[in-house]
Amino acid sequence: MTDAPSLYPLLDSLAAPQQVRHFTPAQLDQLAAEVRAFLIASVSETGGHFSSNLGTVELTVALFHHFDFLQDRIVWDVGHQAYPHKILTGRKDRFPTLRQHHGLSGFLKRDESPYDHFGAGHASTSISAALGMAKARDLQKQDHTCIAVIGDGSLTAGMAFEALNQAGYLVAKNFLVILNDNDMSINPNVGSLQGYLNQIMSGQYYHRWRDRIEHAIKAIPLESVSKGVAKAAKWSEESFKRLMVPGLLFEDLGFRYMGPVNGHDVGAVSKALTEAKEKMQDGPVLLHVQTKKGYGYEPAVLDPQKWHGVTAFDAEAGEIIKGAADPAKPAPPSYTSVFGKALVELARIDKKIVGITAAMLDGTGLNLLQKAFPDRCFDVGIAEQHAVTFAAGLAAQGMRPVAAIYSTFLQRGFDQVAHDVCIQDLPVTFALDRGGIVGADGPTHHGLYDMAFLRCLPNIVLMAPKDENELRRMLMTALYCGHPAALRYPRGSGLGVPLEDPITALPVGKGELLREGSDLFLCAIGSMVDPALRTAEVLAGEGISCAVVNARFIKPLDADLIGAWARRCRAVVTLEEGCAPGGFSAAVAEALADGGLLRPLLRCAVPDHLVHHGDPKRLLEEEGLSPTSLLRRIREFHGTLK
User: What confidence tens digit (pLDDT) does each residue in 113-138 have?
Assistant: First the structure.
């Protein structure tokens, strides 16, 4: 009996990625085809970022053909386009564990492979990081190339242009920025930059003309070229450049622009990289590569947004596999959809309400507002800093802006929240989706720090709902409290509680007593309120009496309610789905200390360490926040009081 032939013979034959440097053009095409086939087959089983990775297959193969990334350095922006990079760097056999607990990360990680030179999960960091690597190389008298691969969507962030500006000023040599232009981030790209890139598409004649003039001048003996001739040639080039391609932004920033190149033609990309290597000897180069998200898999090409991040799917049928629903027990609506519908409901009544998001219309639920009131919904692109200050400007002129931003991404706009919103006490509402542990995307995406970094700011009102109805009430409260306000809520479905109509506001800074008791005082916030109630019910059957308070507000904290029940009970337990340092539990501890209440305190929160990727239920178990873990920990804590 003979072994079945390999589906990926060339890919399976790779002992090291350096072998790709010696491949023929035909072998490079075959390798690209095998990488794409493997990618489709593998991600169909595990889920993961899909259409973005299909778009970078040929580009990745060409890069490995020209560079040795044990020596050269490459930074993939975000990292959600780097599965082909992982496949070619010895991790193909680990793809069945992709984004699973203790498995292969969905992003790049420095401790996962020597070929992962810089980790990321947020956009627009690649050029800055690669430029830093280039200058470190120069200072250490080393000789290799540093490359940043950035998507056109990531160029909407100011950080990318800050790095381009610095690279041009430094005249960084052996430094290459590859612009992966696919007209998409997650949602379609917005803003004038996209129009500018489209203008470049019509400017290819200029680039051909410039190269001919350059080669003609180089052919003239140096002693024959007068200063006047050189000056006239330069003037002619600049004038023609602005005539054919107005602005030519990248060259004005100090880069030698090349392209656009068909990113799905390995030969064309390879030829461009050969030319770029030569031009990089004189300064930084920007290579403009055009790709399509989902290339090579028709369903993903037709709907790249739907296929950006997927669960397991039927590769042959082109259908995403969803868990079987119980028609007798439909799933409760998600917190995201409840928020989106509530915002539209309130916006129908109040014309001053506007929505702002940073390239996450669908992910935040603002697509509903965009559909209902397109002139009052703003997608600013991947630009959280701008989104926050833009909201501040709206608020300063009497509008009621709601900035809907994932918890992890608001970190990018912290200075703007502090400087432009809180110091001026402007009534901006921050709707923070994905608060808490989010699962497969890992440490760059868990929303664990918002309570800690927001509650230290002046003037802000900070809330977390126990269920989806309270989310609606907190949105109303935030909009009309007259101060900066933030509400953070988890990913996924709500609890299935009835939704009150009409929406009513909550009294600011007032918690809610849910259960009386005398032994332990369970003080919970947000997603941990329901587990606190369930735990109290079980412990009651064991003779342990627990009071339960839904704090509702992290700031201002209801110190009177908390103090009253801390006095009545022997010990205090805080419960939060956030980081322990500086978070909700720290706020409660401070309030107890300020009130002179010295009580034994158990803080159920995420400890001061990174939480990696994996199934959220398993991660909560590891962090001591699952129902089983909470019951065990609180039972043991009570035992120490005897």
Answer: 999 999 988 888 999 999 999 999 99
- Catalytic member of 36, 73, 412, 466: 412
Q: Do 99 and 161 share a structural domain?
A: yes
Residue 393's alpha-carbon distances to 380, 387, 405, in angstroms, are 14, 10, 17
The enclosing domain of 412 has a CATH number of 3.40.50.970
Q: Is the pLDDT of residue 509 over 90?
A: yes
Q: Is 546 helix (H, G, I), strand (E, B) or coil?
A: strand
Which H or E element spans position 210?
helix 204-219
Q: Which residue stretches of 456-558 are H helix? A: 468-480, 529-540
Residues 452, 571 within the same domain: no
Residues 220 and 285 in one domain: no
68/16 Cα distance (integer angstroms):
10
In whole angstroms, give the CA distance from residue 82 to residue 80: 6
Whether 102 and 198 map to the same domain: the answer is yes
How far, in Å, CA of 525 to CA of 238, rounded? 61
CB 490 within 8 A of CB 530: no
Residue 319 annotated to the active site: no
DSSP at 553: E
pLDDT category at 247 given cuts 50, 70, 90 is very low
Q: Which comes out higher in pLDDT, residue 242 or 414?
A: 414
- pLDDT computed for residue 344 by the predictor: 98
The DSSP 8-state label assigned to residue 483 in this structure reads S
How many structural domains is the chain composed of? 4
For the question of residue 277 being annotated catalytic, the response is: no
Question: Residue 229 pLDDT more than 60?
Answer: no
pLDDT digits (tens, 9 = 90+) for 490-502: 999 999 999 999 9
**40 lies in the same domain as 162:** yes
CA distance linking residue 536 with residue 551, whole number of Å: 16
Mean pLDDT of the chain: 89
The sign of the torsion formed by the CA atoms of 437, 442, 445, 449 equals: positive
Read off the pLDDT of residues 5-54 as tens digits, 9 standing for 90 and up. 788 999 999 999 999 999 999 999 999 999 999 999 999 889 888 889 99
- Tell me: do 240 and 274 sit in the same domain: no
The question of whether 412 is a catalytic residue gets the answer yes
CA atoms of 83 and 7, how far apart (whole Å): 18
- DSSP per-residue codes, 223-256: GG--HHHHHHHHHHHHHHHHHHSSS-HHHHTT-E
Determine the Cα–Cα distance for residues 401 and 391; give it in Å rounded to an integer: 6
230 shares its domain with 257:
no
Strand partners, 76: 149
Per the residue annotation, which of 109, 137, 241, 293 is the catalytic one? 293
Prior bond to 84 cis, omega within 30?
Answer: no
Residue ranges of E strands in 73-174: 73-76, 146-151
Domain CATH number, residue 540: 3.40.50.920
Which of 91, 99, 109, 384 is labelled catalytic?
384
pLDDT in tens, 293-347: 889 888 888 888 888 888 888 888 888 876 555 556 778 999 999 999 999 999 9
pTM of the complete model: 0.88
Domain residues for the domain of 68 are: 16-184+193-203+245-302
3-class state of residue 148 by DSSP:
strand
